Amino acid sequence: MIKSKYNVIGVMSGTSLDGIDLAYITFEYNLNWMFHIHAAETTSYPHFWKQKLAHLVNLNIEELKEIDKDYTLYLSQVISDFIKKYQLNDIDAVCSHGHTALHQPDNGFTYQIGNHPKLAKLIEQRLVCDFRVQDVELGGQGAPLVPIGDRLLFSKYDYCINLGGFANISSEIDNKRIAYDICPVNIVMNRYANALGYDYDDKGMIAKTGVLNQELLHNLNQIGFYKEKPPKSLGLEWVDNTISPILETSTLSDADILRTFVEHIALQIARSINANTRVLFTGGGTYNDFLLERIINYKEFELIKPSHDLIEYKEALIFGLLGVLKLRGEINCLSSVTGASNDHSSGEIYYP
User: Fold this and answer.
1) Which of 35, 99, 186, 204 could share a disulfide with 288, CB 3.0–4.6 Å?
2) Residue 282 carries which DSSP code?
């Protein structure tokens, strides 16, 4: 039965390996979709899982399947603890993205761990998950998946930009939702902050002390991906094969590399938006004040930083919405975004 009100838990784990984001949300439909986030938190990955997840792309499929079993068990514990902590009794579904292990849409392949039917049994809840696979089977990139939420929940903004492991952008052009990955952000920045003994570059203060290197900046900006037209998406493999060799052959200090990479990100984002527009920024990179300063340096626009919950949990929120749309049999994946052969209702539904 199609309802007008749903209580769901959105679950998201991103490539920056900050942890697992969980949000308990009510969605209500009355001509338009409305939402309310009741509770949200991030469960940081312990060192064991951070190391495991950082090296998934180096494993073969059999090794990944073994890790998948362990990760599913770990994820079930995190979700169950969240339910218990907030005493959540009224749950229509848990809507989970899982964690991307391999993403090679051009080869017709994508694999997110933590999307087992077993997860539904372990958490004793209806589960909606595995949102990418069907889109890739239909010839799409399987990403980005968030733009349907941007259209239905945040249409008052000209652009929605998420600064997570990667920067991705979403906007409405000629009545079509267009979205794509712009460039790496925290997936690269955190590596260099880690090398200096920090979890991340707080407010961009480390980058700010570095010196901008024009040669490195030029080499980064010449990467072929930036000249491609959307739909297009990025993955950890691409970073390892394309970005890392450029940075690792540099003799610059970590601070100088961070400074130069901030400039690279700022340039690529500024090129992706028009002046005099309203731009909603979310994701952990939104706290990087220096990065935001550099973006504004290249383009005049209204930069909107929303509430803490929205900055931190917008993706978990929207995966909750994707799950609700799947339960309703409604479109939750846009071919204009992913390049699939048609719009579709993506994901799998499992029962305890």
Assistant:
1) 204
2) E
Eight-class DSSP state of 139? T
For β-strands 93-96 and 127-129, DSSP reports them as parallel
What whole-number distance in Å separates Cα of residue 273 and Cα of residue 234?
19
pLDDT of the residue at 153? 98
**Residue 341 one-letter amino acid:** S
Distance CA 236, CA 102 (A): 8
Give DSSP secondary structure letters for 172-240: EETTEEEEEEEEE-HHHHHHHHHHTT-SS-GGGHHHHHS---HHHHHHHHT-GGGGSPSS----HHHII
Asked whether the bond before 231 is cis by omega within 30 degrees of 0, the reply is: yes
Find residue 7's DSSP bridge partners. 26
Please check the confidence at residue 235 and state whether its pLDDT lies above 90.
no
Q: Where are the alpha helices (DSSP H) in 86-213?
A: 117-123, 133-137, 147-153, 186-195, 205-209
Give the pTM.
0.91
Alpha-carbon span 87 to 269, nearest angstrom = 41
Of 159, 171, 154, nearest to 230 by C-alpha is 171
Distance CA 93, CA 211 (A): 49
Cα radius of gyration rounded to whole Å, the chain: 19
